[in-house]
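Quick illustration, no need to memorize.
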Amino acid sequence: MTITDKLRDNKAFYAAAGAGDFAVEKLREMPDRLNKLQEKADPKDLGGAAVAYMTHAGSRAVEVFDELAERGKKIVSRVERQKATQELEASARSTVRKARSTAGSAKETAGSVKETAGSAKETAGSAKETARTTAKAVGDASKKIGT
């Protein structure tokens, strides 16, 4: 199972994606909401309002989590269907194939280089032996001519 599959089976992942999408939406609404609150806020009512809000927020936590998870599924699904995402996935698969092929070629080349180096060493040894034999033959021939 790939990490992508594991994420798709994870409700918390979708909740996080949904929370991000929800946060963006609410941040866009923030300037208008602040203006409205400034117009009707009474400092004397803030304490009671805070307690009521916290009580309500606690009871809605599970509900909100489920809503965010559902929202996250939708946003992830939408992103997965986008052409840019599909092109990126295809490009990543192609890059992986090319990297594997290159690694295989490099391994083969390294093996060939090793074999060539071994052959070169053998050839150098043979050339050295031939040079010794030739030098000895020249020395023997010069002695015979000289005598």
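The radius of gyration is 39 Å.
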